[in-house]
DNA sequence: GTTCTCACA
DNA sequence: TGTGAGAA
């Protein structure tokens, strides 16, 4: 009877994204970017990794994966790491606002 | 399974 | 800029 509304749908996707944290291997496989390159960008400061507990294995959250995917596309378009990083950061600003908005709704009973 | 450094093109 | 290999 209760049909999923667009609002409920977006919340379901958001819940999935904020829980989607995988290692560099998964990101490299899904993003198609060699693990070497992913770490390379992270070293440049284009993207950041989240450390899990004490392990040294860096995990990448949806936002980081999005950056890798975005930077890869930008680089393929003829952009350089510096140019791609700038565009990605601007895009992250928008995504961050959406995340904060969804986070508030998800945390609001 | 991941991470680090060194070196090269 | 991106990758190779070895080592821990």
From TrEMBL:
Pfam hit, one: MerR_1
Alphabetized CDD domains for the sequence: HTH_GlnR-like
Coiled-coil intervals, chain numbering: none
Claim: Transcription is one of the keywords in the record: yes
Limits of the HTH merR-type domain: 24-90
Top-level lineage group: Bacteria
Xref: PROSITE patterns: HTH_MERR_2 (PS50937)
Keywords: DNA-binding, Repressor, Transcription, Transcription regulation
Gene Ontology MF terms: DNA binding; DNA-binding transcription factor activity
PANTHER family named among the record's database cross-references: MERR-FAMILY TRANSCRIPTIONAL REGULATOR, REDOX-CYCLING DRUG-SENSING TRANSCRIPTIONAL ACTIVATOR SOXR
Protein name: Transcriptional regulator
Organism: Cohnella abietis
